Amino acid sequence: MLRAVFMCVFLSLYILILGPPLLIYTVLTKNPNPLYWTAIKGLMFFVNATGVRVKVKGIERIPSGTVIFAANHTSAADAPAVVGAIPRRIAILLKRSLFKYPIVGQAFHLAQFIPVDRFNRDSAIISLEKATEALKSGQSFLIYPEGTRSPDGRLQKFKKGTAVMAIKAGVPLVPIACSNAHRIMKKRELKIYPGEILVEFLPPIDSTQYTLDQREDLNQRLHDELASGLPPDQRPLGFPGPAPADAPATTENPSS
User: Fold this and answer.
1) Where are the domains of the chain?
2) Which of 3, 136, 211, 229 falls 20 to 30 Å from 170 in CA-CA distance?
3) Confidence (pTM)
């Protein structure tokens, strides 16, 4: 619990001190890079300070140019690990409620993140269309194709929006397998357990080989390739395939 308190208190102070001047700078210059990277570097500093290590593999597999990064989602801990591992500025589709927080919400808007109302289909479609247009103009995105956090750490079924966006924008899909985050911060718990999160970039998928009529095929391929990159206990039940050569380190003994 003390780790979570430390993270909340000092991260909040970090945001309060650096957030307002960076917001003003971004509004005046229209350049979100300083805001984005200051946020990411600060977040990763506090993540490391709580005893959480992030191991990154496969960066060399990321193609140049605009891409969609597609990651599994198991915990509040996997978001900073995945975003911090991506070596370029990206935008994210985030649930709309996160944009209501002061300073943070304004920062999300200025960083070109797009709010999504998961419970309003028409609104969600409009958000996906906005993201697709941003992709066409050169903005890479991070998307969680499951649409929500996994309740047990295992990969869930994917919604088709990610595949549709990739086909419409004509950009590659880069699956990201994030392992062990569900043990670092468990669902509905405030504790942060020390340990290692593995973030692995898997080989990209060429979406230009698919038409909109084949979106189900692309969606299934993305799902299965991401599942293959996860350890057996995070794959869907019954999913075939050998265990990965490099399984993530187990979590250390929990302590507050």
Assistant:
1) 52-234
2) 229
3) 0.89
